[in-house]
C-alpha cells in the first residue's frame, strides 16, 4: 500500500471514529475516570448539558493513544495521551506521566500537569483533585479555589455544588459559601433553582 493510500485510509478512519463519537456523545463525553468518593459523599462532578467543544474537536485513539480530530477526519492534535477528557472552553484534560493537566486546541500544555483528577471547564473554572481533596483552577492553570473540599462539581449559574463535613452546599467562584453545607446531596443550578436532597426528601 502506498503512503498516500495509507494516509487517506487513516483520515477516513479518524473521520468515522470522530463522527461516531460525536453522534453518541456530542463530542463531550469525558474519558476522565471518576475519583474514589469520600466517605458518605459522591465527589464525581455531574456533567453539564451542551458543553461546547473547542473548534469542534473530537477525541480519537490511534494505537491506544488519544488525540483530537475534526469531524472531517483532519487530525489537529497528535495522539499522545493514554486518557483525555472533552474540550470545553478551549481546554481539554489529558493524563501525562506526571498526572492530569490541560491542553489548548494546539495540544500545548497549559499550566502544570500534576493533578490526580481533572474535569471539563465550565464558566471559566475546572474542578481538579489531589490526594482526595477538590478545588478549581482557571484556564491558565492558576488555583482559584483552594483544594479544601471533600467534593466539588462544575459551576452553573455562578454556583458550584461543594461538599464539606459530609454535607453538600454551594460556593461561588471565590470559594465563599453561598448556601452552607447542610444537604445529603445537591444538583446543579438551572433557571435559578437547584434540586437538593435532605434525608429521603428531594
Question: What would you note in describing this structure?
Answer:
Mean pLDDT is 81; it is low at 1-13 and 19-53. The strands form five sheets. Strands 6-7-8-9 form a four-stranded antiparallel beta sheet, with no helix packed on it. Strands 10-11-12-13 form a four-stranded antiparallel beta sheet, with no helix packed on it. The chain is mostly beta strands and 202 residues long. The chain is built from one helix and 15 strands, in the order αβββββββββββββββ. It has one helix at residues 3-25, and strands spanning 58-62, 65-69, 75-81, 92-95, 100-103, 117-118, 126-130, 133-137, 143-149, 151-152, 160-164, 167-171, 177-183, 185-186, 196-197. 11% of the residues lie in helices and 33% in strands. The protein is elongated.
Q: What are the key terms here?
A:
mainly beta; single chain; four-stranded antiparallel beta sheet; 1 helix; 202 residues; 15 strands
Lay out the secondary structure.
Layout: H1 3-25, E1 58-62, E2 65-69, E3 75-81, E4 92-95, E5 100-103, E6 117-118, E7 126-130, E8 133-137, E9 143-149, E10 151-152, E11 160-164, E12 167-171, E13 177-183, E14 185-186, E15 196-197
Antiparallel strand pairs: 1-2, 2-3, 4-5, 6-7, 7-8, 8-9, 10-11, 11-12, 12-13, 14-15
Amino acid at each position: 500500500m502506498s503512503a498516500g493510500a495509507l494516509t487517506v485510509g487513516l483520515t477516513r478512519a479518524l473521520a468515522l471514529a470522530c463522527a461516531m463519537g460525536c453522534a453518541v456523545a456530542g463530542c463531550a463525553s469525558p474519558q476522565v475516570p471518576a475519583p474514589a468518593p469520600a466517605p458518605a459523599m459522591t465527589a464525581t462532578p455531574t456533567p453539564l448539558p451542551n458543553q461546547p467543544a473547542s473548534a469542534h474537536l473530537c477525541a480519537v485513539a490511534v494505537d491506544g493513544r488519544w488525540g483530537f480530530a475534526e469531524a472531517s477526519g483532519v487530525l489537529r492534535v497528535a495522539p499522545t495521551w493514554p486518557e483525555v477528557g472533552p474540550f470545553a472552553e478551549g481546554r481539554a484534560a489529558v493524563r501525562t506521566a506526571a498526572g492530569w493537566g490541560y491542553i489548548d486546541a494546539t495540544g500545548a500544555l497549559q499550566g502544570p500537569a500534576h493533578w490526580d483528577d481533572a474535569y471539563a471547564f465550565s464558566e471559566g473554572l475546572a474542578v481538579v483533585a489531589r490526594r482526595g481533596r477538590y478545588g478549581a483552577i482557571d484556564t491558565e492553570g492558576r488555583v482559584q479555589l483552594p483544594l479544601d473540599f471533600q467534593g466539588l462539581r462544575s459551576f452553573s449559574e455562578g454556583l458550584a455544588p461543594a461538599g464539606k463535613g459530609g454535607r453538600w452546599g454551594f460556593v461561588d467562584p471565590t470559594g465563599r459559601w453561598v448556601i452552607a453545607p447542610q444537604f445529603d446531596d445537591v444538583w446543579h443550578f438551572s433557571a435559578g433553582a437547584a434540586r437538593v436532597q435532605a434525608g429521603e426528601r428531594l
